[in-house]
Structure formats: structure tokens, C-alpha cells
Amino acid sequence: MKxxxxxxxxxxxxxxxxxxxxxxxxxxxxxxxxxxxxxxRDDAALRVAIFTGAGDRAFCAGxxxxxxYVEKIGREGARTPYPVMLELTKPIIxxxxxxxxGGGLEQALACDxxxxxxxxxFGLGEVRLGWLPGGGxxxxxxxxxxxxxxxxxxxxxxxxDAHEALRLGLADYVVPMHQLMAKCEEIASEICKxxxxxxxxxxxxxxxxxxxxxxEGLRLEHEAYDWLNTTEDAREGALAFAEKRPPAWRGR
Length: 252
Prior knowledge:
The protein has helices at 27-42, 65-70, 82-87, 103-109, 137-144, 147-156, 162-168, 180-192, 196-209, 214-228, 232-243; strands at 3-8, 11-16, 48-53, 58-60, 92-96, 99-101, 113-117, 121-123, 160-161, 173-175. It is α/β, with parallel strands linked by helices.
């Protein structure tokens, strides 16, 4: 099984399971990830996902070059998970447990929150193969970290360590490896205390607003605010606050 998909209450666990290849993705793995993210999107019981790689050496070392581009195994009709990931309104937390390179870093960039183990490394090495990152790396990395540092990584394929990633804003937390999943689960549990529709609208509005002038972003925010005020959850949230009890969210 090249990808493990587990559902534990409202939290989905997605694990690339190719540790012998540093969790590099062949086209079969990419296709399975696409199916999983689609199922996560459509399952109303799932609120947040934790995305990681098997073992303690790599989150994902990118595309499996030997399988995908030398042997060309399974290339016919291959799908990549980026379109589905980038359209999701549910949060994804990346548990970066080692190397996040090439397509692995691009998948981490498609997540909302990145928690890295202390030994993690980050890089986009496609330029050393005569390529450029094709999963959003040239667009998402310069939007996240200072332009000069992003271009240096893109031009040279140079990797940075977890603490440099934290300093630049590429990682949001750096923890010892044995605390990695606990930290991700702590964040996921806090998200699950919030109203599901509100979380999804916040993600949608915040990310769409990045590409809009401020005036248009504020209009988008106001429309979402008005819509949320018509939901059962908004009424339940106010009532629970007044009654000093935890809200019972229904997602409607």
C-alpha cells in the first residue's frame, strides 16, 4: 500500500508509504493521493488532515525519477494531487519528518500549516535536472518566504534545514522527531473545536484574498460573514457562549 489513509474521528491521517524510496512518489502514488484528497474533501465527518511520510528519513523526496521518467511506469493518464489539494477548504497540516524535496516540498507548500522535525530538510532541486518545479513551487515559495531566498533555492536547488525554514517562515514549528505527531494532533484538535463551516470559509477567503486588491478581499470577507450568520452553527455558537457550554457543531 503506497499511501495509508486512516480516519480517526474528525481527523484524517494521510501517509505516503514508500520509506525505501524516501517516500518519493511514482505516478501510482500520485494517483492514489488524488483519490484520497477527493475523499477527504467529500467526507463531511472529516474536519482536518495530517499529512506525513512513513519512517523518519523523509516526508517526501519528490517524484520517483527512475519510475516516472526513466522507466515511465504508469505514466499513461497520470494524475497529480495538486489541483485537488489547492481547491480544498479543509485544513491540512504537514508533519515533515525528514526530507521534503521537489514535489515533496510542493505538496508541503499546498498544506496550511507545516510542522517540521528538527532533522528535516527542504529543497527544490528540479533545476539540477534541467527542469523547473511543476507543482506550484515557482509560485507558492516566493509568496511564502523572501523573494531573494526563494529564487536562490529555485536557481541552485540548494536545501535548507528546519531551523532556517522556521526563520524564513517556510516551517511554522520545529520540534524533536518524537514530538512531531503530537504537535500536529494538538493543532488539529484545536481546529476541531471551531465551527467547521467557519474554518472552511476562513481558509477560502484568506487564500483567495491573497490574489485580490484589499478592497475586493474585504468585500469577499463581508460576503462570507453574512453567509455564516445564516447558518445553524452561528446560532449554536452564540447560544453556547451565552449558556457557558461547549457548542455542538452540525456543519450547517
